Amino acid sequence: MAEAPAAAATTLLPGLPDEILVWEILVRLDPKSILRSRAVRRDWRCATTNHRFLQAHHARQPALPILSSDGYRNILTFDHRAAAASQLHTVARLALSQPFKLEASCDGLLILSKHEMAGSRPGLGPRALLTVCNPVTRQHASLTRTLKDFNILGMYPHRPTGKYRLLLQGTSFMDSSSDRTGWYVLELGSYEAPRYIGCSKAKLQSAIFHAPVWVRDSLHWYPVCYTPVDGETAFFQLESKLVIVFDTIAESFRQIRAPLAPRTNYSCIFEMDNMLGIYSCDKAQKIVDIWVLHNYESEVWELKYRVDLTIAEIWGKFEGLNGDGDVLLLVRFGQSENWLFYVDTDGKLVASFQDLYVGEVGNKKRQILLLPDLQVAPDFWKTLEHYW
């Protein structure tokens, strides 16, 4: 008879089976509530920090666009499902004397850089400070090495090893004694030099790689080249009209066909419901075509939407779709006012937000990365130097 009370005493919540509490209740809570629940009991903390729970909880979290404000010091997410007053949510406030740049994001981890010395080179400056942080758990650590002469193309989980890695584009400059042209991989927290995995084609060396899209354990880009036209910088898509794919398991590159959008259109790639999509805007910036790759294996694209943007004199860039197919459009008025417009597929303005910024490449490029909330296992941080 003494065994029954002892068994009851070991449950996380009296009168409720652990299986229901953990896998039907706790796993459905938002990350902030999970963190607070760990202070209730030590058993609750153990139940919500094991690898199986973290993976299950992460799988339920939405991927949200990242934005910034206040001179790049506030990191926010945009959630179209929330009430109007709560669609913009601050996930981190950085107490920095200088602006930061959001370099990459994966599984809720952010790679931030802070430049102590400005420069005109497209890669990271020689004194750029790189930090990896998890805004949900407020954990952060500086990376063990600088990345001089490298551009960060993306971050990804390498499933065979369970480690996070950076995909880098090596660059070569006249003031550099080394030629690092090509693709490299660097494991976060590693003291080793970036590992060379191949050389890029000549056309891709001068292409601009925007934020990648994650689908089927692969990173995807729709590269853009910039060229001077009549004294101004114009963009054009690569003649090959191909999507560049990086398989994060094999760590190798391949290509798939892109839709037949006009070469003069401005186009970029996005993800919706684990499918690839490509946005294409005409030169007049009035008509937006949304292409979707329904069948990944056959590489056949379908024109899903054609949106007429009736708002005059809007200069900007498409940034993604929500589950209903509505459009998120980042725009600029003049040289100083930055807005996020939320537009439905009929071209009607649903909501707008002012004074937001997400970074620039060249003159016009705006970059959005995805932030799925994840409470990363503590073992990850132990591999990093200077843990705070």
Automatic annotation (TrEMBL):
The F-box associated beta-propeller type domain, residue ranges: 104-348
Superkingdom of this protein's organism: Eukaryota
Record InterPro entries: F-box-assoc_dom_typ3, F-box-like_dom_sf, SCF_F-box_component
A Pfam family per the record: FBA_3
SUPFAM superfamilies registered for this protein in UniProt: F-box domain
Name of the protein this chain belongs to: F-box associated beta-propeller type 3 domain-containing protein
The organism of origin for this protein: Aegilops tauschii
